[in-house]
């Protein structure tokens, strides 16, 4: 009985794992080693991949600064309207990405908001700032929710003790709470950053140019077909996956103190 | 002196109900109460971690509104709450950067630094030298407790709050740690407040004891007095007093009063005794313990428990089914009033 249980669960688990892995292997296999090396030498592809990574990182950093306080407040307090705030954070996950792009354009590229950002020389149509708000809007829940779970896992008694030892609230947050929630926060950052890298629907509405990798893949696929878009996809996956694995590996190693 | 006046607080299912208490400087004060009686919440309130009604003052100064980081009150939690990301040494020295700031801000005289000698004394006293560079994850309960104590003492508190500090300790190490705790107040010139549910711990450590039940501080005073002469039936039962009977049995007219007889001070004999109080009974049960015997004797519709030291045990007198005489003097008797619902405590 136990054997049948294990066997059936392992079989079903293997099916879903294969479903995830096979397309990745198929992509690299289809592109081939030499085409992949050649694609790494293609300046347009490299520029696009690096631009995608850079903008997604900026977005992640912005949400880190603003989202951590929000995540901490939610994790540590019970208050009226908390469920509503948690739902607001999850809104981006639920709406279609193209619809999010339209909403962002309507909000930031018209009227007073547009005028306000123009004062600082910021515009969103076909700019890096536009790409950043699209990525940020759709991927911020991954960081905020990850950090929230991390903060919940930090025993409030640690904070209490730190305060009796003389630490003020800010000091407790930076010296006790953050280091102990670090693993979840960095994982949340990674999830947000990775999700930002793949953002297409909202970005393509706001900023077709400068072309981030997902837009470049789409553009080449539309104009030249599968054979020309596959190497871009392979480079993008290779770079982002290796960055993801390295950072996560380091984070897990550091968090085990 | 630490003075609490009418401390009231409701948080979740825990409540503090108008707690008032005075604790003298350098006193070792134990608050005894069951789990869930509000002891930890009272300690956190004293540390400034909860908003509450009433006032907290220390040496005549009202500190009710003072932030926890400025109170100079150390805290050791039941599970020690050591910082998992820091080594033993860094845990202990966590307060380093705040002490100088505190003294500068308060303008409170000379900066008190821990001299090398005092540091060595602290580390030696708690036997921490070999642990200083260890990861706290790999420490035993006793080692964690010593680190938590060192961390609190190193921050130079004037009051040290200990929340069930022995409950997570292996019983074989408890005596050693109790010895460490005893005299902590005098060694480091601090007032110690220690909460526990363990009577033995309280009796061994306390100069003064307070008893807490359901968020109320029912009684407080010198340890011997509180533990041996409880004022009410409720407290007597809570403290594990046996042989509780209406006082009318030995003092006709003492309505509403109860008395308890110490099972260890009851004498047994085959023939009538010349004690102040004497009764006759039938031995129903006899149980052998490590260093004594426990007897259950039925007498005039009441059940009396007797504890006989092994060296005083006489098999001729104490056998199951034997008729015997029981006698006890004034010193074995404690009187108390019926206060509240006597049936609410059934230990």
Q: What low-confidence regions of chain B span 5 or more consecutive residues with pLDDT below 50? A: 340-347
CATH superfamily of one domain in chain A: MetI-like
Greatest interface by residues involved: A-B, 19 and 29 residues
How many strand units of chain A? 0
Radius of gyration of chain B using CA atoms only: 24 Å
Write up what this structure looks like.
The complex is a heterodimer of chains A (257) and B (347). By secondary structure, chain A is an all-alpha fold. Chain A has a domain at 55-208: MetI-like (MetI-like fold, Orthogonal Bundle). Helix content of chain A is 84%, strand content 0%. Chain A is built from twelve helices and no strands. In chain A, helix 1 (2-31) crosses helix 12, helix 3 crosses helix 12 and helix 5 packs across helix 7 (128-152). Chain B has 347 residues and is α+β, with helices and mostly antiparallel strands. In chain B, 24% of the residues lie in helices and 32% in strands. In chain B, strands 6-7-8-3-9-10 form a six-stranded mixed β-sheet, with helices on both faces. Chain B has a five-stranded antiparallel β-sheet with strand order 13-17-14-15-16, with no helix packed on it. In chain B, strands 2-1-4-5 form a four-stranded antiparallel β-sheet, covered by helices on one side. Chain A binds chain B through residues 155, 157-158, 160-168, 171, 175-176, 179-180, 182, 257, and chain B through 44, 47-49, 67-69, 71, 73-75, 77, 79, 81, 83-85, 94-95, 98-99, 101-102, 135, 137, 151-152, 155, 157.
